[in-house]
Structures are given as structure tokens and as C-alpha cells.
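User: Hi! I'm working on a homework problem where we have to compare a predicted structure to a textbook description. Could you give me the structure for the chain below?
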Amino acid sequence: MAVPELTRFTLDNGLRVVLAPDAGAPVVGVSVHYDVGFRSEPEGRTGFAHLFEHLMFQGSESLEKLAHFRHVQSSGGTFNGSTHPDYTDYFEVLPAAALERALFLEADRMRAPKLTQENLSNQIDVVKEEIRLNVLNRPYGGFPWILLPPVLYQTFANAHNGYGDFVDLEQASLDDCAAFFDTFYAPANAVLTVAGDFTVERARELIDRHFGDVPARPAPPRRSFAEPAPVGEVRGEHTDPHAPMPALAVGYRMPDPINDLDGYLANLVLAGILSDGDGSRLQQRLVHREPLVTDIGAGAGLFGPFEARDPDTFSITAVHTPDVTPEQVLAAIDDELEKLASTPPTAEELLKVTARWAASLHSEHDRLVSRTLALGSFELLYGDAGLVYQLADRMAAVTAEDVAAAAKALRPDSRAVLVVHPEQGDK
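Assistant: Happy to help. Predicted C-alpha cells:
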């Protein structure tokens, strides 16, 4: 995929815009990223950022409920939104001729979503049902992204359940909604991205027409969520009524994703060497040679990479049989990390992981929706949408010594261990 030439500018109301024209197919992607995720939601309102994402689909002061859905689908398009640790995104992918429709719809709800008690009550019920389906009634629900942070972190922002507690969700009020919108959904706190088949001149004209008169409000000061890493190993336990076997998650702090990107990328490569594919270190040892686990994985970022500012989490998760203890699994993990720290990975191991990452990035960004969302999130988090197209080269520049240093930093005396027990009793 050819790297498109990016056009970036800022409207008078503070809205940042990224344009990435590509005439390869007659479709366009439009996304808006707001600089607010569940780490920014107020104490006592767990899950509020995700709840508010739902409310943004419930109509506006000028469009009735479900009109957004009908306008996109009648154009042959798709749409969605999602909440992340440090941002919330909304997007449409439509035929190129429907660009103005997508821009109108996003500007419309940026201007004035329909915040009513009926919509709020309805969406609280929808979110609660989503939590039942994805967490409460599912084996290993919330593992590890909900269950590990309260062990590894101490501050509310980093440790709390971003999906939401039912009591907190039920106490959400219209005043909470209005305050959240006024604070975080200002144009100056957002990035608009347009990618696909359009001309820059036409896009600028349409963006000025639809977004130019959205009232300006100051962006909120960006909070730091920094907190010290654990001193010593900290442990937590959780009983899962649906889990068929025990599991554990190990969490470590990572280098700052924004200000130490190369250190962060070294952790991505380390995760691949540890668990990506049947030939990886942890798969070979813990699944094949001395079968201690039925499943094991390692990853940078609890939601995937490039989704959060500092602090972010490196995690290793494993599911094992009841006759294996957590200490046996931890001992094998620690031994493999020590081996990597003292003896860097081979050139073949390194190339296998970085080549796989490069192929994955190119494949992902060849999809218009993924490319649009990546450009918007990188503009928001890094201040540089073009960094998306440098990642494969930056990843390829990670050395074996960088990976060894990353492994050395994952120390037993500065980590969190979460142990998951199946609920005992008759099934």
C-alpha cells in the first residue's frame, strides 16, 4: 500500500483534522476521536465513558433516535464506536459519494447529542446486559483487562473497572452526562480523520461547512495518570464461577508508549518472541516440552498496543490444569525471561517476529476502517498521524539487545500476579 500524503490542519474552534486521500477504491472512512477514555471518568462513575459512547448514538437535537443508523445504512455504509483507556472513537465507512453525509452526522452529534432521561435509562440497561454477556456470564470474563489492573495499580484512574459497576451505572444522572459532554466532547478535544477517495479541496470545504460552526470550548487540561511501579510482588485472587480450569495473569509496567516509543516497541517484539506462534519460547516450553499450561500468551497493552498513554501494561496470561500450581508456571516464566535477558534472541527469532508484525501492520492498514482509526488515534495520542506509516521500520530497527533489556526489566520484584480459581462445587 502506497503511503498517502497527509494533510493536517486545525479549525478555529480547535478541531484537529487529518486528511488521507487514496483513490484506490470508491469509499471513504470518517472517524472522530475524543481525548477521553475510561481513565478520565469520575470516581463513583465507573463505566461512564463507555455509557456515554452509547448515548452518542441515541439521536441529537436535530435528528431523531436511530436516524444516524438509517442514514449510514441506507447509503450502504457501516458505523460503530468504541471506548479505550485514553480515547473514544466513532466512525463510518461509506461509498465516496456519501462523504458529506458522514461529516454531517459526526458534526451533528458533536454539536448536541440528545441527552434525555429515557435515552440514559435505556442505555444503562443496554450496558448492563453487555456486561452480563461479556463478563459476568462468560468463562474468564474480564480476564485480564478488568481483573489485573486493581492488582497492579493503586489509583482509581488506572485500577478501576472501565466496563462499569452496576451501582455506579444506575446512579448516572443527566447532570453527569451534560458535564461529561461539556468537558470532554469539545471540538478542541477531538481529531477528525477522513481517509479514502476524495479530494483535499472538497473535503476541506465540507468540513468547514459542517464543523466550522460547532461552538468552541476549551479542551480540558490533560491529566497525568502516572503512579509508581510496584515495590515487590503484589498478588490478587479471583473466583470465577464459569471457569473450567485455574488461570493466572502476570502484569508488569512498560516503558512510556508516547515518550519512549522505541522501548515500547522492544516490549512488543519481546511479547512475540515469548508467545507468538508454536515456535515461541513460552509455547515451546510450557505447552510442549513440559506441559504446564493449556494456553499461554503475552502482550503489550491490555487492549492491544498503541491504545493508551503512560502507564501501560505488559501481561502474560496462562490457563493451567488443577494439578499445576501458579508457582510452577511463574518459575518457568521467570526462567525464560532470565534466559532472554542474559542471552539475546537469535537473528532468526527477531526477524520472524518483526516480519510478522510488518505484515500484520500492512494488512491491517490496507483496510480502510483500520487505517482511518489508526491515523486518528496516532494524531490524538502522539500528535503525529504519519507515525502509523513508520511503525514497521521502527519495529524492524529493534535489536536483540533491546529485547534482552526489555526482558531484564520484567522483574519478579516489581509485578502483579492475579490467580483465578474455578468455583468449587457441583456443576
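For your comparison, note the following. The first helix runs from residue 48 to 55. The longest strand covers residues 232-240. Good luck with the assignment!
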